[in-house]
Amino acid sequence: MNYIDTLFSALMDEPMPKTHEYVENRTIRGLLMEDIRKAMGENMADKVSCAYSEYEVMECERYFRHGIRLALELLRL
Predict the structure, then answer these.
(1) pTM over the 0.90 mark
(2) What is the pLDDT along the chain (77 residues), one digit of tens a residue?
């Protein structure tokens, strides 16, 4: 694991935000997962949740790396 991965992991362990938008989004996501469970069953809901979670982490890592690159480029200015 390199330094950027270590830093990303440390930042991912921060507490969840308490903003209205974040809480509302989490609530909506929970309701959607309940709809998936009712329509497709527990097994499929778990597969969808795992796939979405893995995708979300990969996207966050990508955005984080882009942010680090941008910061380094700005420091060069």
Answers:
(1) no
(2) 688 888 888 888 778 888 999 999 999 999 999 999 999 999 999 999 999 999 999 999 999 999 999 999 999 87
The DSSP string of the chain is --HHHHHHHHHHTSPPP--HHHHHHHHHHHHHHHHHHHHH-HHHHHHHHHHHHHHHHHHHHHHHHHHHHHHHHHHH-
Q: How many residues belong to the chain?
A: 77
Q: Are residues 37 and 48 in contact, defined by beta-carbon separation less than 8 angstroms? A: no
